Amino acid sequence: MRGDTDNYSALFLDDVPMMDARAPVEFAKGAFPGVVNLPLMNDVERQKVGTCYKQHGQQAAIELGNRLVSGQIKAERIEAWAEFARNNPQGYIYCFRGGLRSQLVQQWLKSEAGIDYPRVTGGYKAMRHFLLDTLEQAVSHLDFVLVGGMTGTGKTEVLARLGNSVDLEGLANHRGSSFGKRATPQPAQIDFENALAIRLLKMQAQGIKQFVLEDEARLVGRCSIPLSLFQGMQQYPLVWLEDSLEGRVERILKDYVVDLCAEFTAEHGEAGFSAFAERLQESLVNISRRLGGEHYRELALIMDQALAEQARSGAVDLHRNWIETLLTRYYDPMYVYQRESKASRIEFAGEQDAVVEFLRVRAKRKHAVEVPH
Fold first, then answer.
1. List 52, 95, 223, 261, catalytic entry
2. Second label for 175, Cα 20 to 30 Å away, from 32, 62, 151, 282?
3. CA dist., res. 336 & res. 152, Å (int)
4. Contacting residues for 124 by C-beta, under 8 A, at least 6 apart
5. Whole-angstrom Cα distance, residue 361 to residue 342?
C-alpha cells in the first residue's frame, strides 16, 4: 500500500488525482484544479454534527455522524469513493485538516470495499498554506515584467505567444475591463489564487526564471490579485504594446462581439444572443456615470442599433461605431495618463511582433546571466 503523503509540491506538479471529502459548501468556497468533491457528509449533516460537537463534544459528534451516514446513504457514498479509487489508483483522499473525515473515508474504503487508499496529511488547510507560501516566495524571489498598452492592443495575444507568461485574466475567466465578463462564471477567489500559485510552481519546476504578466488593476472582474503581487506590479518593469486605432477596433470587435456572442450561444443555445446583448448593454450601463449622461445615451443608441442589425442579419459592422467612440473618448485618455505616470518603468515600446521578440530575448538574457557557461 502507498503511504499517506505530505509532499504537496509533487501533488500539484504531477496533477495527482485527489478526492475532497469536505462538504459541498466548503468545496464551493475554495478547492484545487481538477479535484473531485465526494463528501463524507452533505451540508445539512455536517451542520448537525458541528452543532453536536460544540454542545456535547467529539465522541457524541462522531456517534451522530455514524447515525446520519448509515445504511443506504453510507453504501452509496462508499461506492462513489471506491469508483474514484479504482479509476485513480495513484490518487489521494483529503478533508479539511487531514483528520477525522478523511480517516473515516479511508477506514470505510478498506473495511467495506477492500481498498487501501492513502490520505493527504494536513489536508486542505496544509495544501492551501503551501500554495500561499509558493505565491509569497515567487513574489519575493522571481523576476517579473509587465505588458501594458491601450485597450485592444492584444496584450493577451502577446502572453499566448510566450512560454514564460502567466495569464491572470485567463485564470480569472474575465477580460479585465468593464466589458470583460465571460459567458461562464468566474472562479471563487481562493480557486483563482490556488490556480495562480500552481501555475507559478509548475513554471519554476521547468526552470523558468522570468515571468511576464499583463499590467492589471487589482480586481480582474471580482477576482482580486494577491496583495503582495499587486504591490510588486507597481514597481515591475514595463513593455508597452502599441497598435493602430483600426487594429484595436477590429480586435475588440472580434473578442467582445463575435467571440463573446459565440460563447453565449454555446452556453445558452437559442437564448444565447439575447443573453449576449443584455451583457453588452449592462457593461455600458456600468460605466454610464463616468461617461456622463449625454455620451452614455449616444453610445447606448449606437449599440442598440448594432445589436438589432446583428440579430436581423448576423452582420457586426455597426458595432465598430460604438467601439471606436468608446476607445477614443473613454479608454484612451485613461491609458495616456497611465503611460505618462509609468514612463520611467517602460523598457521598450512597439507593436506585437517586436514586443514578443524583445521579451523572448530579455528572458534568454536573464537565463544566460543565471546559468553561466
1. 95
2. 32
3. 14
4. 20, 22, 26, 31, 94, 95, 96, 97
5. 22
CA–CA distance, 264 with 273 (Å, rounded to integer): 7
Q: Which stretches of 18-122 are DSSP H helices?
A: 24-29, 43-56, 58-68, 71-87, 100-113
Residue-wise pLDDT for 127-178, tens only, equals 999 999 999 999 999 999 999 999 999 999 999 999 999 999 999 999 988 8
What is the rounded end-to-end Cα distance, in angstroms, of the chain?
45
Q: Is 95 a catalytic residue?
A: yes
The bridge status of strand 18-20 relative to strand 36-37 is: parallel
How would you classify the pairing of strands 219-220 and 223-224? Answer: antiparallel
**Tell me: the pLDDT tens digits for 261-315?**
999 999 999 999 999 999 999 999 999 998 888 999 999 999 999 999 999 999 9
Cell triple for residue 218?
Answer: 487589482
List the one residue out of 195, 171, 227, 175 whose CA is nearest residue 30.
Answer: 195
The edge-to-edge listing of strands for the beta sheet with 92-94 is: 36-37, 18-20, 92-94
Global model pTM greater than 0.70: yes
Q: How far apart are CA 64 and CA 54, in angstroms?
A: 13
Backbone angles phi, psi at 36, to 5 degrees: -105, 130
